[in-house]
């Protein structure tokens, strides 16, 4: 119960951070997705269930407060990301660290692919180069912030080892 | 029953994922629902409070630069104004000679940009005017530099504006010098492309691009951008003009909604 309250309060804090900072960090019309980083951290720390619930809730809030986006798309991608990242909980020690990092990077890249593809299908047909440039920038921008976060708190220390 | 509940409890993460996906898909399916739009409009009015400090800090940061730009713009406009007054007199005289009756005039409703949303992609903004100012979806939105976008949904006190930078945005435009009409597609940064230009038509770098008027939304002759390059290859049926937009979408502060009034 205490854990749920902590996650909810932290989620509100991240939402405020996204509101206050995202405008100042906009480059080429793209912003870092702090809420996705939070979903990843919660999922790695607490597992798939918490990942899905946090991803869905924050995604819904993001969609309701966002201008122009398709309603339901962000909860879909974030809950799926939360679920998949949650499956990695406790596996850092058992897995090859490179595989572990490649898997979560792949999941984040997949999350952005679905989001950008649904929003910019017409761009892919019209100008595939611009589509892939937009996709790479959007993904890399958030990955840079995840990397910065990892310097402060590595994922290996977030994801506890599961009992055998 | 107990076994079923136990099974659900044991696989609660899968069930929660299933529920989340089902709910998200149903939201996507009902995306155009009026109720969803009303809820979003009301929530955006509430959340705009949180964006106020951001807008305030941004406003202070750009104030000096904006002031300098506006001062030079005032000088330019006053020079232009004196020239236009002469043209106006000429125009009125010629119109009265032709017994031209002005049937359509434009009204501009000013609106302040209150939020750019939380999405990682900036393709739309919210403005602080809505139904109360007789707005409706599909109205042209401009600022002092040129075309910004169009309204896509309108709440009681806020409206959502689809920016020209959205890749799904299309606009019928005209080369001011040659009169050639084409379709605007956004490219990247401040660049857009004008498609469907016949290869026989002459288009030059530096040509001004304005709205064509072949639209129920955008009136003619609103400034859009300037041609910066031309793509013309032998295998292409039509030419493509590459252009840069007049509007700086990164510093949108105030916009105007264009409303037509039949006089």
In short:
With 164 residues, chain A is an all-alpha fold. Chain A has eight helices and no strands.
Task: Kindly describe this structure.
- The complex is a heterodimer of chains A (164) and B (263).
- Chain A is an all-alpha fold and 164 residues long.
- Chain A contains eight helices and no strands.
- In chain A, helix 2 (34-46) packs parallel to helix 4 (73-86) and helix 5 (97-119) crosses helix 7.
- With 263 residues, chain B is an alpha+beta fold.
- Helices cover 35% and strands 32% of the residues of chain B.
- Chain B contains three helices and twelve strands.
- In chain B, strands 1-2-5-4-3-12 form a six-stranded antiparallel barrel.
- The model of chain B has no long low-confidence stretch (mean pLDDT 82).
- Classes of the chains: A mainly alpha (164), B alpha+beta (263).
- The interface between A and B is large, with 58 and 52 residues.
Fold blueprint:
The complex is a heterodimer of chains A (164) and B (263).
Chain A: H1 2-21, H2 34-46, H3 48-65, H4 73-86, H5 97-119, H6 121-126, H7 128-152, H8 155-158
Helix pairs in contact in A: 1-2, 2-3, 2-4, 3-4, 4-5, 5-7
Chain B: H1 2-10, H2 12-29, H3 34-98, E1 104-115, E2 124-127, E3 140-142, E4 147-154, E5 159-163, E6 170-175, E7 181-188, E8 191-198, E9 208-211, E10 223-231, E11 238-245, E12 254-262
Antiparallel strand pairs in B: 1-2, 1-12, 2-5, 3-4, 3-12, 4-5, 6-7, 6-9, 7-8, 8-11, 9-10, 10-11
Distance between the termini of chain B: 72 Å
Q: Structural class per helix/strand content of chain B? A: alpha+beta
- Helix share, percent of chain A: over 70%
User: How many beta-strand elements of chain A?
Assistant: 0
Query: Structural class of the helices, strands and pairings of chain A?
Result: mainly alpha
Give the radius of gyration of chain A. 16 Å
What is the assembly state of the chains in this entry? heterodimer
Order of strands across the biggest sheet of chain B? 1-2-5-4-3-12
SSE order of chain A in H/E notation? HHHHHHHH
**Largest interface, per-chain counts?**
A-B, 58 and 52 residues
């Amino acid at each position: 119960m205490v854990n749920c309250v902590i996650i909810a309060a932290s989620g509100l804090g991240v939402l405020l951070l996204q509101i206050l900072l995202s405008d100042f960090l906009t480059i080429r019309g793209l912003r870092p997705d702090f809420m996705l980083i939070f979903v990843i951290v919660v999922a790695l720390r607490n597992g798939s269930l918490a990942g899905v619930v946090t991803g869905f809730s924050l995604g819904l809030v993001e969609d309701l407060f966002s201008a122009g986006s398709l309603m339901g798309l962000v909860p879909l991608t974030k809950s799926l990301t939360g679920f998949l990242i949650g499956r990695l909980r406790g596996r850092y020690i058992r897995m090859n660290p490179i595989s572990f990092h490649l898997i979560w990077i792949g999941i984040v890249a997949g999350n952005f692919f679905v989001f950008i593809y649904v929003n910019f299908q017409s761009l892919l047909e019209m100008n595939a180069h611009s589509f892939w440039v937009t996709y790479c920038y959007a993904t890399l921008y958030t990955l840079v912030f995840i990397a910065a976060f990892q310097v402060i708190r590595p994922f290996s220390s977030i994801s506890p080892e599961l009992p055998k | 029953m107990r076994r079923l509940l136990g099974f659900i409890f044991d696989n609660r993460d899968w069930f929660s994922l299933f529920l989340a996906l089902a709910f998200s898909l149903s939201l996507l399916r009902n995306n155009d629902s009026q109720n969803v739009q009303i809820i979003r409009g009301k929530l955006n009015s509430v959340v705009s409070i949180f964006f106020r400090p951001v807008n305030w800090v941004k406003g202070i940061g750009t104030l000096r630069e904006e002031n300098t730009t506006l001062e030079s713009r005032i000088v330019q406009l006053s020079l232009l104004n004196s020239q236009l007054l002469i043209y106006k007199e000429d125009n009125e005289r010629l119109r009265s000679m032709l017994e031209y009756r002005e049937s359509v005039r434009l009204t501009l409703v000013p609106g302040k940009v209150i939020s750019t949303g939380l999405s990682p992609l900036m393709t739309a903004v919210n403005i602080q005017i809505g139904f109360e100012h007789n707005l409706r979806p599909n109205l042209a939105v401009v600022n002092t530099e040129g075309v910004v976008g169009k309204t896509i949904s309108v709440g009681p006190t806020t409206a959502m504006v689809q920016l020209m930078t959205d890749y799904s945005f299309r606009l019928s435009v005209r080369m001011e010098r040659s009169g050639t009409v084409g379709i605007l597609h956004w490219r990247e940064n401040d660049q857009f492309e004008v498609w469907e230009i016949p290869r026989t038509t002459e288009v030059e770098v530096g040509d001004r691009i304005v709205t064509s008027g072949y639209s129920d939304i955008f009136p003619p002759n609103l400034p859009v951008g300037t041609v910066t390059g031309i793509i013309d290859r032998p295998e292409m049926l039509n030419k493509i003009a590459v252009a840069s937009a007049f509007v700086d979408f990164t510093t949108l502060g105030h916009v105007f909604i264009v409303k037509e009034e039949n006089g």
